Automatic annotation (TrEMBL):
This is Putative 1,2-phenylacetyl-CoA epoxidase, subunit D. NCBIfam families: PA_CoA_Oxy4. Residues 137-176 form the PaaD zinc beta ribbon domain. Residues 25-86 form the MIP18 family-like domain.
Length: 178
């Protein structure tokens, strides 16, 4: 599962844990090397006895967007529903949960490593509890240099910034700490 946070979120009862494991395989459509579990977007999965008319159990899944208005959430909702239905759960409900707000603190260490291997610098540090802005060095995922600079606050998606390495001259995305 990656971290103790993910282990704590995974349901203890076997039926819900089995459904969690299926939902946890769904990949983020914008960064396909990450699962929604890696991102910390998958918040809860519950299997309920009250399902459809044929007696199939119902599955309720809660997901939290990485930021308000994230366009990937519709695709994630559809992919979670499709994965669970393909696994034999005909009654699936996926709810968007906005509170508490998602933070990069919810990302697994395995997910951060996958980002780096994919060429995106993972978030560093912990999310601030207040309006604290620090200028931190961002390690280049290509050559590991800390001699980098931000080119633009928003990269290919709103949750990433565009950086360039001053040593190897390669541009790269940095997954911002939120």
């Amino acid at each position: 599962m990656g971290t103790s946070l993910h282990s704590a979120l995974r349901p203890a009862d076997p039926a819900s844990a089995a459904a969690w494991d299926i939902a946890a395989t769904v990949c983020d459509p914008e960064i396909p090397v990450l699962t929604i579990e890696d991102l910390g977007v998958l918040r809860s999965v519950t299997v309920e006895d009250t399902g459809d008319a044929a007696g199939h159990p119902a599955v309720r899944v809660q997901i939290t967007p990485t930021y308000s208005g994230c366009p990937a959430m519709d695709a994630i909702r559809d992919d979670v529903t499709a994965a669970l239905k393909a696994a034999g759960y005909p009654a699936v409900q996926v709810d968007l949960v906005l509170s508490p707000a998602w933070t990069t603190d919810w990302m697994s260490e395995a997910g951060k490593a996958k980002l780096s291997e994919y060429g995106i610098a993972p978030p560093t540090g912990k999310a601030a509890a207040g309006p604290v802005r620090l200028g931190l060095s961002v390690k280049c995922p290509q050559c590991s240099s800390l001699n980098t600079r931000e080119m633009t606050r928003f990269g290919s998606t709103s949750c990433k910034a565009l950086y360039v390495c001053q040593d190897c001259r390669e541009p790269f995305d940095y997954f911002k700490v939120l």
